Write the structure tokens for this entry.
Amino acid sequence: MQNEQNVTVIGDVHGCLPSLEKLLKLIPSDDRLIFIGDIINRGPQSLATLRLVRSFGDRATLILGNHEMHLLATAAGAGKANRRDTIDEILNAPDAPELIDWVRSQYLLYQWGDYTFVHGAIDPAWSLKKAKNLAHEVQQALRGDDWKEYLQEMYGKDLWDDELTGSARMRAILNGFTRIRFVDKKGVPDYKIKDAPGNTPKHLMPWFECPARKTKKDNVVFGHWSTLGLVMTEHVIALDTGCVWGGALTAVELPQRKVFQVKAPQYCDPFA
Ligand SMILES: [Mn+2]
């Protein structure tokens, strides 16, 4: 049985507040909200977007995307500034400490009914049970007093291995949830390629099409991959439709899979 209340999952907002406000008008007001991550950065109103999502209190849950992790690492003094970052307004805000504390209390993996929500992927090598344990491990570290220390070496292309410890283990877990797009037939990620499927080397496939993937019978919802567009198959929902790039902001109401979508103005040029 599903929970009685519906849940609406919302794609990558990237600080596009007007599009989010328009979308929210379409969503039933008693739905719970799950933001699939990357609510901030790149777009024009990251601070106001973060404040709005936090103001929903128990109604909203945030899945941590690579841009939320980048915010946390930067707040921890370990961030590598990117010329397209628009997160300074958050870090300089009077309520920055509360906003950062709220972000680090959120989830790499969240479950509702038969659905599992992650920002980018579940590493094909992980069973659902293992993924839950690994997400929990990082979430506990982010919620702890030593979270800034924990994030000091967050950036790197580490691949998962059961033997990993320390910062390489943290990086491989974060990559497995927030950065994977393409993998080979054994499920090993390739972090270099970000295109839509079709322009990619023949030995690579989208992670969710990998025959070796251990979660292929689980229902997984994710964002992160704007060039993929809206995907809905028996077990997979992908809903980053590139609002910051001038695409659309998409939400899907569960369990009935009703789609809400608003066309979005372009704030970022993907080729700039
Ligand atoms: Mn992302």
